[in-house]
Amino acid sequence: MESIKKSCIFYGAVINPKSLQSFSVSPQCLLAVDAIGNIDWIVDDVEPHTLQDVLASKGCIESEVIALREGEFIIPGFIDTHTHAPQVPNMGTGGQYELLDWLENVTFPTEAKFSDVNFARETYTSVVRRVIDSGTTTCCYYGSLHLEATKILADIVYAFGQRAFVGKCNMNRHCPGHYIEPSFEDSVADTQTLISYIRSLSPQQDNSSQEPLVQPILTPRFAISCTDDLLSSLGNLASSDPKLRIQTHISENKSEISFTRELFPSASSYAGVYDMFGLLRQNTILAHAVHLTEDEIDLIKSKDAGISHCPTSNFNLSSGIAPVGVYLDKGIKVGLGTDVSGGFNVSILNAIQNASVAAKVCSLQTGNSGSESSSMSAIYANKQLSIPSLFYLATIGGAAVCGLENQVGSFATGKSFDALIVNVRDEAGNPTIWGLDDTNFTNLSIEDKKKHLEGWLERFLFCGDDRNIERVYVQGTFVGGRTFRR
Ligand SMILES: [Zn+2]
């Protein structure tokens, strides 16, 4: 792994998400990263002829400056708030099923293979490489139910330098006999062992406010696959460890919801099941949330839990469309998830594209594509998602869902430099991006350059792929991308 051994300075275009409604575009930005990978300072508009003076004023005359070319720009790394590492080999298969049949016929047979640690090592090496090269700098991984295989996944993530949460699935009922945990006690014991193991990989530094790169996460697969005593033990574990994140599925599919209600008759709702066991809190990541009731939306908001919107998977498994705009209007934290292999692409770019389509379908169904809204307070419900909104969900939104909004998701002094260098020049080799036309570009005004950059960002979000992701940085370290040398 090539790393930045000393401070490093980037000079070129930087696009920085600010809110659901805006991002900043700086065509001539100077951004300095310190020796531990945090952003030291940012100067927004530096004319080439003043570059040396600005560097001198910062005491950085000797520093290495990486100058970007026209058609290259820096954005924060993407955050995938929901994916399943052992399902990557299944991508693009099983789309004829809905959730419960898909689990039985496609997912569980593949996940069961991860009892073989050699298979796990080989597969996860390829999986993590692909995820990083696709521009995901922070990833919430579900492993299989196996302790050893999930330790290997954490080892690989750590060795490759990605920021991640890694959990093993808790599942002790309603799973096939060959792929189920023998008891709730075994499930909890393995979970505790995994938590200690992952925390030993990169211990928290006492003097650092920053969290370790790789962290454990509680992963009750979903309510159906966990007995009451398992959920109750996991709730106790969570309450003794407030920083421990929790990830699970919620309200993805109508058959799943009815079965859950049957299994937990005393719970007020599906969300109520997790709440009843102490698993719904400010660092819980709920994947899907396609069919929540009003009461569940209010409960999730009151607990400040986050939602991982996985539109590709929701289309592919015919689950439905999550009303993301409603959640955003409520002020619920929302990020994007690929949900491989319910989703058929490891790239958050694909989630962005399908989130856009999903929101457009919502707006068409309600006849609300224009400026009217059903309620005066509705800003996002049943409307298209704008480019700033999509960019925000993929970056800051995901960071907030993970509880990392002060550390990653955008660029600011003191935050970690988790970033992508994007290249939309023809040389990147992606035929779907009508790339840079650099005739006269250098003579454009700053305002015109900003307009070009906005256009390139939109083309990248909708037509880009890993060929356009030249470099991937996590905590200031160059960890992947098209030009990464292994
Ligand atoms: Zn999932």
From TrEMBL:
Please give the catalytic activity noted in the UniProt record.
guanine + H2O + H(+) = xanthine + NH4(+)
Q: Which GO terms describe its biological process?
A: guanine catabolic process
Listed pathway(s):
Purine metabolism; guanine degradation; xanthine from guanine: step 1/1
Q: Which UniProt keywords apply?
A: Hydrolase, Metal-binding, Zinc
Single GO MF annotation: guanine deaminase activity
Residues covered by the Amidohydrolase-related domain: 73-479
Function in brief: Catalyzes the hydrolytic deamination of guanine, producing xanthine and ammonia.
Give cofactor(s), names only. Answer: Zn(2+)
Tell me the InterPro entries matching this sequence. Amidohydro-rel, Guanine_deaminase, Metal-dep_hydrolase_composite, Metal_Hydrolase, Metallo-dep_hydrolases
EC category: hydrolase
Question: Which Gene Ontology cellular-component terms appear in the entry?
Answer: cytosol
Q: What is this protein called?
A: Guanine deaminase
- EC number annotated for this UniProt entry: 3.5.4.3
Cofactor, free-text remark: Binds 1 zinc ion per subunit.
Organism per entry:
Psilocybe cubensis
The record's family statement is: Belongs to the metallo-dependent hydrolases superfamily. ATZ/TRZ family.
In terms of superkingdom, the source organism counts as: Eukaryota
